[in-house]
Design goal:
34% strand; six-stranded antiparallel beta sheet; mainly beta; 8% helix; binds deoxyuridine-5'-triphosphate; 178 residues; Deoxyuridine 5'-Triphosphate Nucleotidohydrolase, Chain A
């Protein structure tokens, strides 16, 4: 089940959902709108290697915006830092963003119970499009979970994306042994 606006508010009161910064106007009927953070990043190498630590270059989005180009993977980040202690958060795109040909994640935007961080966005575009820091970029929805949780994400020693950041985080796939 997906949490309603009232339930999201109730969970925020309890402290099981944290969204910072939070604005009432960003709360939808059953979702919360999140915004594009200040930083973008691109990979240094033209060919990525899933076994290696692929390094990124991080840059600030200028006040006049930045034109994203097709064929390039950009990593972005949400302005919002979130904590979700008892529900499964999902990051979804917004229709208005999709209608500009912007994808904000490359695969499922599922989060884990216990995820406490900003969200990294894996951004690609269908045609050149100028984007701006602070624009609405996605929405968080919250699912209830069935059963007890043994491993909360923020207490898993091998969780890769636990370190609090305001910048996008590159793939840490290299930490997997395969
Ligand atoms: O588009 C997304 C999707 C998820 N996350 C966050 C929330 C999630 O809790 C965390 C880890 O995601 P996932 O479990 O899918 O990544 P993984 O590659 O399996 O990493 P880990 O081994 O740390 O679970 O990353 C993002 O920042 N952006």
């Amino acid at each position: 089940m997906i949490l309603s606006d009232q339930q999201i508010l109730a969970e925020m009161e309890r402290g099981t959902i944290v969204i910072e910064p939070y604005e009432r106007s960003c709360l939808g009927t059953n979702s919360y709108d999140v915004h594009l953070g200040r930083y973008l990043a691109t990979y240094r190498d033209a060919v990525l290697d899933a076994r290696k630590h692929n390094k990124i270059d991080v840059f600030e989005i200028p006040a006049e915006g930045f034109v994203l180009q097709p064929g390039i993977l950009y990593l972005g980040v949400t302005e919002e830092y979130t904590e979700t202690h008892a529900h499964v958060p999902f990051l979804e795109g917004k229709s208005s963003v999709g209608r500009l040909g912007i994808d904000i994640h490359a695969t499922a935007g599922k989060g884990d119970i216990g995820f406490c961080n900003t969200w990294t966005l894996e951004i690609s575009v269908s045609m050149p499009v100028r984007i701006y820091h602070g624009m609405p970029v996605g929405q968080l929805i919250y699912f209830t979970v069935e059963g007890e949780v043994e491993n909360l994400y923020n207490s898993k020693p091998n969780a890769k994306y636990n370190q609090r950041t305001v910048k996008p985080v590159e793939s840490m796939m290299w930490k997997n042994e395969f």
